[in-house]
């Protein structure tokens, strides 16, 4: 049992390194403060007031349109979401996770706490790019298309809400999300404005990407810059970080890796901008591996696994991991995503697929409908200058742009939470800068 | 025998749990223990400040010299892990995930609903019992300083701490530092050996798996105050297991990733190797006069 505990501690370390770098692509031009904020997140003393107690239910649901489950994904049969109910009539906040993340990350727990404290029922959902969602709720199995993924999410949200206990009384529905989940939230509202099945009132995007694919490609560049190409580069980063961690424990006199000294260990391991960039790029690459593997499996493209000999749960995966670690997003796009969507969406081209994954597809709604809001940071790694300007001009007074935080590094801070709650309640009066 | 009883108890407990709300094949809703964000953040603030204070103290003390020869890139083990029993291990890992999901975790969740002082008491009680194994193994490792500290903790907490229910020793600035037979084997130069996933217990190496069994045997052989062979002895190990599970945030397949086995193995083996290296260093550097525990 002790081993499980130590393992828990170690996983906390990786989560610490990874959680805040959750995946979206930086420009490679970010400054030191932005990189550090992205990795570490908001310091606990800057966090908004939190309630003492938040009830929590875990919901597993089988969705009728789910594709046949590959044997290797046996653990992803049902979609898992989390729900916190008020014991009185209250508005519902649906919160969507960022790239690759499940529906109960530390960031979601933080948002859940603040939203519950402000009187909302809170439903947290995984990202459509999370392998659990891809297996249990995706109608394609090939993740990454903004509109298709949002449609799957929309259908899943309806099923879940329809099954909630009758004593849960919902007065209004708002939707929000962080990172890629922010884009999904806005698209969800735009779908709902036609279909009216959830009657979504307001949508808040927190640090959303404007162009998913452009941002991904920038991340590939960051990977090339900070890690290098192929196994050689990964091995070099691994050796560098291992040496530092080992020397940290050599000098710390505490010869067991435990939860208490993980923050200090992370401080000893990540030192330069290149280290932080590598941590962000590697985290994203690991998330991409899951999307690549499941996409290849469902689409039967044969790039990773042989469709005629489907992988089984006991099979070693070292070789697959080794190959996928070296594959950038552009390889996923070229080998899995584009072939699938070109075949399933008549008349589309590679250029049209890329264009359809920009927030422009709901640009008119964002410009004219006063119920869309956004929060982002001037130094967010996943936006370039033109994209930030586009967000500003499109949302006009309905966007708050903070001067620090990198990508999600200020999530949970007092100002960010206060503004978010004002936006959701429709009492946001514009940035007081 | 004991393990079988452990399983039987957990199976009964698991089966008798209230299903909590509606549960059909297509939809199930399970109530979890409430989250406590305010208290969690207060703890995070304290940890953050402690870390900063520790880092400042470290910078002043210039302990960099104490590490002797620093590790270099040439000493770093390969990214591959030695896992000759991979198929069996993967099978066990899958079993553990299902066992955890169906039985251990639901029981631990119910346990987490008990009043916090009661849980802390139980936790302290088992931590205190583990000092016995630590004393034995620090002696076997020829490490008198931490051995005496563990013995001191055992005596203080068993008496002033009322049978170990209160951790008085930590309040007196004698923090715990567990050790076991696995670490003793490592101290005398034994390599971790192949990666091994143990049924119900999770990831280990062959050496640490044997160490775990030896620790259990040590407790059973010493049998303090006839705990292990007394009337309630059968309940001891399951309760310890549930307490540990309730204090561990790990969740099998929470990321949904098909590569979780690989990730866990990679991290576990690296962790073992780094701990071994630190332990070896500690001995080769002349036992570094009176090492102070890091957590103060």
Write the layout of secondary structure elements.
The complex is a heterodimer of chains A (433) and B (296).
Chain A: H1 2-19, H2 32-40, E1 54-61, E2 79-84, E3 90-96, H3 106-117, E4 121-125, H4 131-137, H5 146-163, E5 170-178, H6 180-195, E6 200-206, H7 212-226, H8 230-252, H9 262-269, H10 273-299, H11 318-325, H12 329-344, H13 350-355, H14 363-368, E7 372-377, H15 385-395, E8 399-402, H16 414-425
Parallel strand pairs in A: 3-4, 3-5, 5-6, 6-7, 7-8
Antiparallel strand pairs in A: 1-2, 2-4
Chain B: H1 2-15, E1 27-35, H2 37-61, H3 86-111, H4 116-140, H5 144-159, H6 168-171, H7 181-187, E2 195-198, E3 202-205, H8 206-222, H9 233-246, H10 260-284
Helix pairs in contact in B: 1-3, 1-9, 3-9, 4-5, 7-8
Give a short summary of the structure.
The complex is a heterodimer of chains A (433) and B (296). Chain A is an alpha/beta fold and 433 residues long. Helix content of chain A is 49%, strand content 12%.
Tell me about this structure:
The complex is a heterodimer of chains A (433) and B (296). By secondary structure, chain A is of the alpha/beta class. Chain A folds into 2 domains: 179 residues, no CATH class; 234 residues, Alpha/Beta hydrolase fold, catalytic domain (Rossmann fold, 3-Layer(aba) Sandwich). In chain A, 49% of the residues lie in helices and 12% in strands. Chain A has 16 helices and 8 strands. Chain A has an 8-stranded mixed sheet with strand order 1-2-4-3-5-6-7-8, sandwiched between helices. In chain A, β5, α6 and β6 form a beta-alpha-beta unit. In chain A, α2 crosses α10. With 296 residues, chain B is mainly alpha-helical. Chain B has one domain. Helices cover 58% and strands 6% of the residues of chain B. In chain B, α1 crosses α9 and α3 packs across α9. Chain B is globular. The two termini of chain B are 41 Å apart. The N terminus and C terminus of chain B are likely disordered. The interface between A and B is large, with 87 and 93 residues.
């Amino acid at each position: 049992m002790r081993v499980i505990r130590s393992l828990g501690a170690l996983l906390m370390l990786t989560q610490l390194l990874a959680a805040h770098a959750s995946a979206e692509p930086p420009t490679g031009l970010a400054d030191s403060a932005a990189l550090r904020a992205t990795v570490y997140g908001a310091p606990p003393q800057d966090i908004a007031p939190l309630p003492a107690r938040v009830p929590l239910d875990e919901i597993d649901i089988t969705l009728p349109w789910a594709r046949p489950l590959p044997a290797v994904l046996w653990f992803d049969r049902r979609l898992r979401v989390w729900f916190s109910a008020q014991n009185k009539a209250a508005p519902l906040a649906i919160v969507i996770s960022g790239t690759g993340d499940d529906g109960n990350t530390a960031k979601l727990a933080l948002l859940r706490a603040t939203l519950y404290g402000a009187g909302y029922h809170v439903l947290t959902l995984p990202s459509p790019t999370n392998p659990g969602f891809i297996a249990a709720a995706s109608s394609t199995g090939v993740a990454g298309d903004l509109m298709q993924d949002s449609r799957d999410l929309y259908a899943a949200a309806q099923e879940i809400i329809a099954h909630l206990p009758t004593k849960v009384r919902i007065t209004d529905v708002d939707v929000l999300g962080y990172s890629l989940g922010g884009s999904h939230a806005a698209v969800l509202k735009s779908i709902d404005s036609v279909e009216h099945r959830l009657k979504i009132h307001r949508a808040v995007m927190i640090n959303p990407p404007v162009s998913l694919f452009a941002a991904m490609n920038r991340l590939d560049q960051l990977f090339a810059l900070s890690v290098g190409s192929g196994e050689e580069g990964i091995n070099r980063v691994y050796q560098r970080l291992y040496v530092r961690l080992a020397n940290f424990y050599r000098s710390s006199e505490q010869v067991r890796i435990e939860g208490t000294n993980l923050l200090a260990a992370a401080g000893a391991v990540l030192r330069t901008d290149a280290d932080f960039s590598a941590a962000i790029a590697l985290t994203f690459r690991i998330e991409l591996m899951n999307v690549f593997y499941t996409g290849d499996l469902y689409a039967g493209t044969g790039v990773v696994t042989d469709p005629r000999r489907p992988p089984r749960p006991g099979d070693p995966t070292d070789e697959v991991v080794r190959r996928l670690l070296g594959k950038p997003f552009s390889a996923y796009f070229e080998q899995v995503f584009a072939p699938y969507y070109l075949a399933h969406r008549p008349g589309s081209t590679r250029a049209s697929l890329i264009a359809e994954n920009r927030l422009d597809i709901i640009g008119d709604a964002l410009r004219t409908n006063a119920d869309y809001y956004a929060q982002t940071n001037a130094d967010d790694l996943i936006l370039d200058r033109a994209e930030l300007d586009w967000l500003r001009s499109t949302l006009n007074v309905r966007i708050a742009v903070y001067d620090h935080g990198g990508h999600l590094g200020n999530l949970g801070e007092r100002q960010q939470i206060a503004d978010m709650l004002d936006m959701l309640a429709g009492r946001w009066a514009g940035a007081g800068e | 025998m004991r393990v079988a009883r452990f399983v039987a108890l957990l199976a009964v407990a698991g089966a008798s749990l209230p299903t909590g709300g509606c549960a059909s094949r297509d939809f199930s809703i399970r109530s979890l223990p409430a989250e406590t964000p305010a208290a969690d953040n207060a703890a995070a603030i304290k940890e953050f400040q402690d870390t900063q204070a520790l880092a400042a103290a470290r910078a002043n003390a210039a302990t960099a010299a104490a590490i002797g020869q620093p590790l270099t890139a040439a000493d770093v083990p390969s990214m591959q892990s030695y896992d000759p029993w991979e198929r069996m291990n993967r099978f066990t890992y899958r079993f553990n995930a299902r066992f955890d999901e169906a039985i251990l975790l639901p029981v631990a969740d119910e346990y987490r609903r008990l009043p916090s002082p009661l849980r802390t008491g139980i936790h302290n009680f088992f931590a205190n019992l583990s000092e016995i194994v630590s004393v034995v193994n620090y002696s076997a490792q020829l490490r008198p300083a931490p051995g005496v500290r563990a013995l001191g903790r055992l005596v203080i907490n068993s008496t002033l701490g009322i049978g170990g229910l209160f951790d008085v020793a930590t309040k007196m600035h004698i923090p715990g530092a567990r050790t076991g037979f696995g670490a003793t084997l490592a101290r005398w130069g034994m390599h971790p050996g192949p990666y091994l996933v143990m049924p119900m217990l999770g990831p280990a190496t062959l050496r640490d798996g044997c160490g775990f069994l030896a620790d259990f045997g040590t407790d059973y052989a010493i049998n303090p105050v006839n705990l292990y062979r007394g009337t309630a002895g059968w309940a001891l190990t399951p309760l310890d297991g549930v307490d540990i599970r309730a204090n561990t945030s790990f969740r099998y397949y929470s990321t949904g990733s098909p590569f979780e086995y690989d990730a866990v193995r990679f991290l576990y083996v690296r962790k073992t190797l780094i701990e071994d290296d630190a332990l070896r260093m500690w001995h080769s550097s002349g036992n570094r006069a009176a090492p102070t525990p890091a957590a103060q």
